[in-house]
Amino acid sequence: MKAIVHIGLKPGVLDPQGRAIARSLVDLGFDEVSGARQGKVIEIDISGKNADQARESVTKMCEKLLANTVIESYRIDIEG
Amino acid sequence: MKAIVHIGLKPGVLDPQGRAIARSLVDLGFDEVSGARQGKVIEIDISGKNADQARESVTKMCEKLLANTVIESYRIDIEG
Fold first, then answer.
1. C-beta separation of A9 from A15 below 8 A
2. Which helix (H) or strand (E) holds B16?
3. Over the stretch B44-58, which tens digit does the pLDDT of each residue have?
4. Residue among B64, B62, A18 at smallest CA distance from B76
5. N or C: which end of chain A has fewer CB within 10 A?
C-alpha cells in the first residue's frame, strides 16, 4: 500500500522559495507568471495495514516527523 | 489559472532524502514503512492564457528551469 503525503506552507506563510521561482520564471520571459508556491510530496510504502490503519499511521508520521504543523499543512492520499 | 507541477526523481535514481525519511520513520517505531521517496510540487499562478496555452508554457518552464530532466520527471495539472 502506498501513502502519498502532500505538504505545503499554510496560507499566509511567506514562501521565499516560491517567490524565487516566480521571479526567475519572469526573468526568463514567462511574463504570464504572477506567483508560485513550492511544496513537497512524500510517497511512503506501507506493508501489513489496511487503508484506515495506514491513514491513521501516516497521520501520526506527519505530526511527529514529516510536517512542521506550525507553518505547514498536509494532506494524505492512500493508494492501492 | 493555476498550474500544478509535480516533480519527482525518475525510477532507479537514488533518493537519499527519501531513504533518510524511511529510516527515521522506522527508528520512530513505524515498522510498517518499507520505503519512501520525496518529490516536490510547484503551484504556479498564470494569467492571460487558456488551458492549452498554459500547459504549453508550463512545459517550457519545466524544461528550462523547474525540472532537471536528466534525473527528474514531471507532470503538469492545469486547474481553474
1. yes
2. helix B16-27
3. 999 999 999 999 999
4. B62
5. C
C-alpha cell at A66: 514529516
Q: Which residue, A73, A76, A71, is CA-closest to A15?
A: A71
A47: exposed, middle or buried (Cβ count in 10 Å: 0-12, 13-18, 19+): exposed
Determine the residue type at A34.
Answer: S
- B38 and A40 in contact (C-beta within 8 Å)? yes
- For residues B8-22, average pLDDT: 97
Q: Which three cell numbers stand for residue A42?
A: 512524500
Q: How many CA atoms lie within 13 A of B14 on its CB side?
A: 2
**Residue B80: per-residue pLDDT:** 78
Tell me the C-alpha distance between A7 and A30, whole Å.
26
Q: How many folded domains does chain B comprise?
A: 1
CB contact under 8 A, A42 and B21: yes
Enumerate chain B positions whose Cβ falls within 8 A of a Cβ in A: 6, 8, 18, 21-22, 24-25, 28, 30, 32-49, 54, 57, 60-61, 64-66
Domain around B40: 2-79
